[in-house]
Amino acid sequence: MPVQSDVGRKKAAANEKLAIHLSTHTGQKPFECNVCNKKFATNGMREVHLRTHTGEKPFDCKMCDKKFSQRYQLQRHVRIHTGVKPNECTVCSKRFSTKGSLVIHSRTHTGEKPYGCNVCDFRSATSGTLKRHHLTHTGEKPFECTLCDKKFTTSQNLCTHLRTHTGEKPYECSLCNRKFSESVKLRGHLRTHTGEKPFQCGVCSKSFKRGEHLRNHERTHTGERPYECTFCEKKCALARNMRVHIRRMHTTDRPFECTLCNKKFPERAELRVHQLKHTSERAFECTLCDKKFGSAQGLRAHLRTHTGEREKPFQCALCDKKFEKSSKLRTHLRVHTGEKHYKYECSVCNKKCETSSTFIAHTRIHTGEKPFECGVCQKRFGANATLKIHLRTHTGEKPFECVVCNKKFSQSSHLRTHQRSHTGEKLFECTECDYKCSAPGSLAVHLRTHTGEKPFECTVCTKKFRTSSGLNPHLRTHTGEKPFKCSVCDKRFAHSLGMKQHSIRVHTE
Q1: pTM of this prediction?
Q2: Contacts of 401 (CB under 8 A, 6+ apart)
Q3: Residue 59, beta-bridge partner list
């Protein structure tokens, strides 16, 4: 009888495969899910699908008690314990536990992307990636979390999300025992031990640890920005950049909250950086100068001050200047064409801005919002870039050096302006008179002599100034602040000029 049972099972499996194959010709799918109305070629496929609704997982792993909804998932999982990887890549000798994984991997060598979207030009190496892409057009999110009602495009994303509630991290690194909630994160982490970078760019040969990082990098060459904002015309190359844009510009959503001070952030990465202010932890150390940083991003940016390395694949055809992003090249080209492409207008003063980041920074002049705080002196700033520049007043860091006279600067813009003192170049010309200058900021200040504009107003006496450098010394007449100290007699002054005059009169012979 058992033999007949085995024969019966094999016959049923063969019939199932035949029915699936025939449906590719006929398109017939007679078996419908009574929960979501999705249709299937065979009853067996419908039964398997129903488990996504019921949560049933009848296949148990005998080694770790993990459960699966389908037999092939269990068979694939068992190879994690046994280490069996019978499928080898003929190009790079990398081995895989399943034939399907090998086929997908081989496309990283051939560049083959057989799955094309019928709505846009997107192509993919896997059918699963294409299915997920289709959902960006339909907006469909069929998988809902029963704990917080959040919805997802795939059951895998739902399972991963559920671990944020349970705290489960089932994937453990055998080298350092670090645990992860997703297998893909474990695989990526393992490459920090091996140094392996299997994903190579076909344009510039740069290699990456993850396929996702390669895909993101490839867009620096193609200029592709597939993620479009539903509120405005902005497009982004990365999904996370679009999420941040929508949260910053179009919503007040700040879902990531600090448990120590209750401050909220639009992105988890920002929260992690903020939390380092409470812990004072600086885990990322520079191997060249022993300087420490609170984030890997901060360390990478710092390393460039040693190596000068910065990928700039976009080159201006008019002046050969290079840029990291295609968007920065497009903005730069307006210097040559004189074109002004204003997309954002301030509702308070009607000032127009070319980029969302410039617009956000400008609006903070009116709101007074200064979300970026210096961890050394607690001074606050309206822009993160301004905070980074300010931090150099504490560290003394001057990473930008003139190749002519070796003078160093804390800002790249100061170096560029300084270099024009050697070349005599004056790129910026006033349209009202013959005035020319080497810096755009100097031209902006000069233009105010024609317009009479004084945008910087004292909040105490409402006196107005053409420049912030004019307003700041004036404010000291109200506050009594004297930040400039004589190095000889410790006398203090409100202005640097006053201190210099004092030094000449009193301390020089």
Answers
A1: 0.34
A2: 407, 408, 409, 415
A3: 68
